[in-house]
Amino acid sequence: MLLAELALYLRPPGQGIYAVSSGKSELDEFMRHYLQHDDQDWHAHLEKIITLEGDSARAILAIPSDAGAGIRRGAARGPQGIREALQHAPVFDLGDVFSIPHFIDDDMLSAAQRYASQDALYAEIPLPERRYLPVSPMSITLRVLQIIHQLNPQLKIHLIGGDHTCAWPMSQFLFANPENNQDVGIVHFDAHTDLLAERLGVKYCFATWAYHANELLGRNGRLVQIGVRASARPQEFWESEYQVKQLWAHEALKMTPQELGEWLVNYLQQKGIRRIYISNDIDGTDSYWASACGTPEPNGLTPEHVLAVIATIKTAEISVLAADLVELAPVLSLDKEASKRSIATAVAYVKAQLEAF
Which of 343, 349, 324 is nearest to 63 (CA)? Predict the structure, then answer.
């Protein structure tokens, strides 16, 4: 039953963006090449997650949604750009959360709209059961994570976004129980704080997910933000008002990459944080290496700094519970070489974070 429900929500790699026919044959061919098998039975593919264990208990899950972005959209195409650069799935790939491009979270929808979309997505499901099924990408992602945990509690998930709203369902899943949060934290690379309680009345979006995740964590310096440099308020405000720990980009760049990694691990150990979620917004990296995103910012982290932090975490006694790479938007860069650099940067981060598992 759980596998059947999971198959309702997920599509093969690259097919989470709704398309009737245009480019479908190309997507099918890409999936066969990327997954390195010709199996067209998507349900049978998903069933394999039950047997994954040990070093194989890692998976990619893509959320091709940028409805939560607030400046420029395009991050919905990030997963496809990363997969094309990878060429072959480095670990088990769960495919895409199917995304209605106008939605973010089910809590933002009227009952009438939920029902209409349930009828469109799940027409084969009996009506009473259909009414409980999620339709928005963030709500679907949360349910997918819950199902995966029931099927294989060992499996660690690397999310590929999508805009940074995609970090919210993972935060909900990981930090929902306050009793289990005593030794957990978030390491957050970003040019921005994402600490608004709401944005124009919208509770969950790219600018608010960190606020709500920090509340779930119980504050107390468990959210560590590295690379901030575009903020309407000073560092002291965020740290005192929300009890987060920040290392702004100009501070981080005074350190060598190795020193930055050591600084972070020392901080985590002093706070008693032994388990973390890595949330990596590519705009935390300087715009030379990450121009293809919705909000590129100059004077940011170098890839060497970010990779050194991830490598240091890997060697320390700190467990990576999950990770993400968000906000890559290959279609937003008119400079082909700059777009290639952005994709290469994203791919390097994904590979390093998978290794950190």
Answer: 324
Give the residue carrying structure tokens 């990030």.
78
Q: How would you classify residue 206: left for phi > 0, otherwise alpha for psi between -120 and 50, otherwise beta?
A: alpha
CB 134 within 8 A of CB 146: no
Q: What is the CATH number of the domain that holds 18?
A: 3.40.800.10
Residue 263 CA, chain-centre distance (Å), reads 24
CA angle, 342 then 347 then 348, to 5°: 100
For residue range 193-223, what is the model confidence (pLDDT) as tens digits?
Answer: 999 999 999 999 999 999 999 999 999 999 9
Identify residue 85 by its one-letter amino acid code: A
Half-sphere exposure of 256 (CA within 13 A, CB side): 4
Q: Which two tokens stand for residue 54?
A: 């040990």
**pLDDT above 70 coverage of the chain, percent:** 98
- Helix or strand run (H / E) with residue 129: helix 127-130
Q: Which structural domain, as residue segments, surrounds residue 147?
A: 2-356
Round to whole Å and give the CA distance between 348 and 303: 9
The number of folded domains in the chain is 1
- Over residues 326-355, the mean pLDDT reads 94
Tokens representing 13? 């790699």
User: Token pair for residue 227?
Assistant: 């690379």
Q: How many helices (H) and strands (E) does the chain have?
A: 14, 9
Q: End-to-end distance of the chain based on CA atoms, in angstroms?
A: 29
Q: Tens digits of per-residue pLDDT, 75-127?
A: 999 999 999 999 999 999 999 999 999 999 999 999 999 999 999 999 999 99
Q: Is residue 123 within 8 Å of residue 24, measured between CB atoms?
A: no
**How does pLDDT run across 233-292, given as a tens digit for each residue?**
999 999 999 999 999 999 999 999 999 999 999 999 999 999 999 999 999 999 999 999
